[in-house]
Structures are given as C-alpha cells and as structure tokens.
Write a structure and sequence with these properties.
With about 130 residues, the protein is mainly α. Helix content is about 75%, strand content about 0%. The chain has helices spanning about 1-25, 30-35, 40-50, 55-85, 100, 105-125. It is flat and about 65 Å long.
C-alpha cells in the first residue's frame, strides 16, 4: 500500500512540475495566463465527453459557457495576482470578451479596474 501511495504521489508531483514548466516556459504574459487556465478547459472537455451520450445539446452548450466563464475568471485572477504592477498594463486578446461573457458588474472586473486606477494614481503621484 505504501508503494502504491508513493507511486501516485510521484506521478501527481511530476504532473505539477510539467504543468508549471508548461506555463512558465514562455515569456509572453498573455500566453502564460492562457496556459494557466488549461486545466479548466481540459476538465470541461472531459465532462462534456462523458456527458455527451446522455445529454441534450443545450446541456453541452451550457458546459462550454461555464468553461468560458471560469477560464476568464481564472485569467483575470492570475493577471491581478501576478501582473497588476506591470507597466504598461497587460492587455490580452480575451479582454474584449470579458464584459460580454462575465457581465459588467462582475466583482473581478471591478477589482481589476480598481487595481489599474490605483496604479495610475501611484504613477501620477510619482511623477509629481
């Protein structure tokens, strides 16, 4: 039993190391953020594949919509966490879709705007 647990732990650790290298190997912040959301995409694809024989097309579309929302939320969270102090601010291709998909009153979007306004205010105070 201990050997099995050791093997499973080693496999999980190997996947985490491979995932971290996959995310960090590129120098483009938008590509890093996109790669960081890959587990959400794969999880939703797995759920969709498993549900396909028993589900209606509306359900499968709902899974796709949920996946898009969660990936955008996670991408915004990663950008706030790791790139909020970046000058100039990071702008990615998916930025044009975030208000359409998440809605304009989303808390993460508001938090991102507040961080950007705070950074702009600090830049102006530093220039004066």
């Amino acid at each position: 039993m201990i050997i099995l647990r050791t093997i499973i732990t080693a496999i999980v650790l190997l996947f985490i190391i491979i995932y971290a290298c996959f995310v960090l190997i590129t120098s483009n912040p938008c590509t890093r953020i996109d790669r960081a959301t890959v587990p959400v995409r794969y999880a939703s694809e797995f759920a969709k594949t498993m549900a396909k024989p028993w589900s209606q097309p509306e359900t499968l579309n709902g899974i796709d919509q949920w996946s898009a929302k969660q990936r955008l939320r996670l991408a915004i969270l990663f950008r706030i966490q790791f790139y909020s102090d970046h000058v100039p601010p990071i702008r990615c291709d998916w930025d044009i879709y975030k208000e359409q998909v998440l809605g304009s009153d989303n808390g993460l979007i508001e938090k991102e705007r507040a961080k950007e306004a705070e950074r702009m205010q600090n830049d102006q105070a530093g220039n004066n």
